[in-house]
From TrEMBL:
UniProt-listed Pfam families: Glyoxalase
Organism whose genome encodes this protein: Tumebacillus lipolyticus
InterPro entries: Fosfomycin_Res_Enzymes, Glyas_Bleomycin-R_OHBP_Dase, Glyas_Fos-R_dOase_dom, VOC_core
Gene3D superfamilies per the UniProt record, alphabetical: 2,3-Dihydroxybiphenyl 1,2-Dioxygenase, domain 1 (3.10.180.10)
Residue ranges of domain VOC in the record: 1-125
Top-rank taxon, per record: Bacteria
Entry keyword set: Metal-binding
Name of protein: VOC family protein
SUPFAM superfamilies with a match to the protein in the record: Glyoxalase/Bleomycin resistance protein/Dihydroxybiphenyl dioxygenase
């Protein structure tokens, strides 16, 4: 089990605004708050966002380089993916991919970017879909 994940962000207020909406939608609760960071927790696992120090802001995040590529979160079912997609659109978050009708993708997912360009996937995996049949 993952204990915690810590992500440096270019703009803590922007990140806290986005993640402070998104993570509670998935069941995470606000956990810690201090001048340079915020965290949200679910069970024994928590996710931390920390303001990047100004002398380390560049180069900016690029998921194709060594390091974090993307974050993927479980959805309860395909309906939850659809609901989240609608909420993301309502908030003006650009959707990169939506797999509802893509026959070549075994998962049902909505894929988008969060602050700093981090790719985020909210999905119900094929195994989960089969378990609901």
């Amino acid at each position: 089990m993952l204990h915690h994940l810590e992500i440096n962000v270019a703009n803590l207020e922007e990140a806290a605004s986005f993640w402070g909406w998104f993570l509670p939608e998935l069941g995470y609760e606000a956990y810690q708050s201090w001048p340079s960071g915020r965290s949200w927790k679910m069970g024994a696992t928590y996710i931390v966002f920390v303001q990047t120090e100004s002398d380390h802001l560049f180069p900016v995040y690029d998921r194709r380089k060594t390091g974090l590529n993307h974050l993927a979160f479980h959805a309860e079912d395909a309906q939850q993916v659809d609901i989240m997609r609608a909420k993301l659109i309502e908030r003006g978050v650009p959707i990169l991919k939506y797999t509802r009708d893509m026959l070549d993708d075994p998962n049902h997912a909505v894929i988008f970017t969060g602050p700093d360009g981090v790719l985020i996937e909210y999905l119900v995996a094929k195994e989960q879909q089969e378990a609901h049949l």
